[in-house]
Amino acid sequence: MVDSRVRFVVVATVLAAAGVLVSACSFASPPLETPPIPTFTTSTTPPPVTRGKRPVPKACASVVSRQEVEIQVGKQLNGDSQEIVGVPEPSIGRTARLDCYYGIPAGKSRGSAAVMIGIATYKDPQSAQERLSSSVQAEQGHGAKATDVKVGPDAGVLLSGGDGGTFTLVVTHGPTSVVINAVHNLVPASKMQAVLIKIADRALAPH
Questions:
Q1: With a threshold of 0.85, does the pTM exceed it?
Q2: Which residues are the signal sequence here (predicted)?
Q3: What pLDDT, in 10s, does the model give residues 103-128?
Q4: Phi then psi for 37, rounded to 5 degrees?
Q5: Superfamily of domain 60-203
Q6: Residue 121 CA from chain centroid, whole number
Q7: Could you say which DSSP state residue 1 is in?
């Protein structure tokens, strides 16, 4: 009789323990899934450079100031400054013009300036490009060498070695053109192209 009771208690205890284990297993949290590792693609292509419209400013300080020119050439310019407001010329499609002369020697005309920056607008991009081509051809007719250059996103031409002994950079952006003349000894010849490109890029940037 005692053995039967003992066996009953043992069996009941085992069943109870098994029930606890089953219950515990039924409520156990499912194993966590490992989240995927994100991948990133790195682009080495820089965004394209864009440039907005560039009207002719009212003053040379808003084209390229004398101080900005001096910073680019690395020295102060001797002589005076002068600005000339041009008039529209319908025959070539020009609608506005402003010429900025820096470093005019004492007793000399503005044509002797160390640097001249001219900015003009035309009725359309085609007229501006035609004017650029005409200027390049005229300089080549006087022995100048033409070199294609990039001024930011725009195409330009550097002219050197002509009769005038100056360097000239011409560039257009839409209906706007910029012309820069510099005396041959403004900076060393090896640096002239880079300096004129920086000045032209500044002239085409509204500020």
A1: no
A2: 1-28
A3: 999 999 999 999 999 999 999 999 99
A4: -85, 120
A5: PknH-like extracellular domain (3.40.1000.70)
A6: 21
A7: -
